[in-house]
Amino acid sequence: MATLDSVQSDIIRLLGEKIEGDLTLTADTDIVVDTGLDSVSVMDFVFELEDEFSITVPLDRISDVKTVGQLSAAIHGLILEDA
Amino acid sequence: MSIEEKAMAVQKAFGALKALGRDPTRLEFDEVISPTEAKLEGRRTILLGTNNYLGMTFDETCVSAAKAAIDEFGTGTTGSRIANGTYELHKSLERRVADFYGKKCAIVFSTGYSANLGAISSLAQSGDYLLIDADSHASIYDACKLSDAEVIRFRHNNPEDLAKKLARLQDKPGDKVVVTEGIYSMLGDTAPLAEIAAVKKEYGAYLMVDEAHSLGTLGEKGRGLCELEGVEADCDYIVGTFSKSIGTVGGFCVSDHEGVEILRSISRPYMFTASLPPAVIAAAKASFDQMEANPQLRELLWRNARTLYDGLETLGFELGPEVSPVVAIKLPGKEVAVRFWNALIEAGVYTNIAIPPSTPNALSLLRSSISAAHTREQIATALDVFAQVGAELNLIPASKADRRRLAEVQGAMRIVTGTGGAMVRQPISGDLDQAAPKTGGAKG
Predict the structure, then answer these.
(1) Of B278, B284, B228, B232, which is closest to residue B57 (Cα–Cα)?
(2) Is B244 labeled as catalytic in the residue annotation?
(3) What is the pLDDT of residue B20?
(4) Residues in chain A with pLDDT < 50?
(5) Is a pLDDT exceeding 70 seen at residue B439?
(6) Which of B116, B222, B353, B384 suits B402 as a labelling partner, its CA being 20 to 30 A distant?
């Protein structure tokens, strides 16, 4: 079973492949403000997470997400629900 | 953050782009001359961005019907159908739309936006699921916000991704409503509707198709992508608008499910806004009549669409994936899109600019919409302007913009395009130039 830490490190790895520059991603990184990705790109990134973790991410579960840590918690919660 | 601070943030985000030229949200036409021409900043301008696919806005029959309705019923209903009652006109338009689609029920709304808002938010309720294409129009996303259903996106035009998501919901109670569009408004691409309909049947879901840009443009009778793909019986709900091919304003939802009538009692965008005024209803009804009586308009539309698409492709522009009444040029960034759009206006061609975050895949687009009412000369002139401005902005090689070469290409296209529009799947017969004037009459 995936842990919150392992989910977060997977998200950081996948997100790192999408952004340019030397930004170090942490739980506190703001996914839009700090990475330069626009909101549409972030939503498309969610598709990658759905494939990576074999889950479906309803919009309302991520509507308030701003940071990598919050996204990791939301994804981890959905993985647990599907288990 | 205060309202003023929010306004400053928006100004900061878009100020640099607006500084390059006009503000697309504040463009003013001095005069509208015909479905395809207006006066803008004192110049006669070819309209290539108005979604007036069949040129119905100046159709004499529609205009006369609207005038007569004003004389008989007045200028407006002054309120909602709940409060102020339903006119016989509303009922007759609903019967006309239902008959056109061969469906049992039709409900009309005051705009296409409110049709999506009203139908989607009311049909999928708490405990249900809305599965929407990722590239859905803003009205579909807004409808999802108004609904209490759980909202799930699937990858654009990807039936496999949809199937995967429906499979994960299989053991969960609640209705699953899949929402897709006929023609997508930004790139002009069509949905793989036969595959999507097969998926919805496999998983026992409902299917709603927004035919806003495909009503009047696709299918032998103009009923849209559902008709073209032969899946009308599988499309549970069809929504659409009167503001494009029909040439006026308003929206609708049609269905064979009689339960759709609950919208009249629970749909807030139906219940709490003013109903369509008499002139609009009369024009819409006349427009359906004209559309049915003049199928050659669709042939003209597709001939024009292919001419514009092929012409732009020959010039070296990168376009949307398929020939369509919506022809989008992909550009390398927001700034160049703004410069291109402004330069075209200065040269007498009006198009639509679309930039992120309103576009799929963060694309910067210059979007044209073609009409059956465009003349060959207007399209040739527009292509000349695209060539000149495109070369000036280094978007295409100067060699491709050579006017003599373009003229040769346009001449060749006139022969090639005579074979007809593939999307209507029927050969063109007769001289189409003789078929146009009914809807292309100039105002003055």
Answers:
(1) B284
(2) yes
(3) 83
(4) none
(5) no
(6) B353
| CB atoms A44 and B134 under 8 Å | yes
User: Can you list the positions of beta strands (E) in B318-423?
Assistant: 318-319, 326-331, 349-350, 352-354, 364-369
Q: Which of B110, B114, B147, B185 is catalytic?
A: B185
At B365 the three-state DSSP class reads: strand
- In contact, B112 and B263? CB cutoff 8 Å: no
Note the pLDDT of residue B357.
Answer: 79
Question: How far is the C-alpha of B410 from the C-alpha of B412, rounded, in Å?
Answer: 5
Mutate to test the interface with A, among B144, B148, B152 (most CBs of A within 10 A): B152
What ipTM score was computed for the predicted complex, to two decimals?
Answer: 0.94
Structure tokens at B146: 């108004």
3-state DSSP helix/strand/coil % of chain A, to nearest 5: 55, 0, 40
* Cα–Cα dist B128/B324, whole Å: 34
CA distance linking residue B30 with residue B43, whole number of Å: 9
A43 shares contact with chain B (CB less than 8 Å): yes
| Both structure tokens of B105 | 């029920």
What is the arrangement of strands in the sheet containing B352-354, beginning at the earlier edge strand?
Answer: B318-319, B326-331, B364-369, B352-354
Tokens read off for B64 = 């006369």
What tokens does B171 get? 């053991």
pTM: 0.91
Provide mean pLDDT across the span B235-253: 98
